Amino acid sequence: MHNHPSGDPTPSRPDIDMTRQIVEAGKALKIAVHDHLVVGREGVASFKALGLI
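RESULT FIELD:
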């Protein structure tokens, strides 16, 4: 989970790329990543709900 100071919780391309790298690294360690949340003044974006995980 992290925040976007801009207030817009929409995941950025770097957010998506970094999350995919973390998911892959977790697989090697048998650690499951269940979701990644981005918080902003305009709400919360869930990678799982958006189909990004």
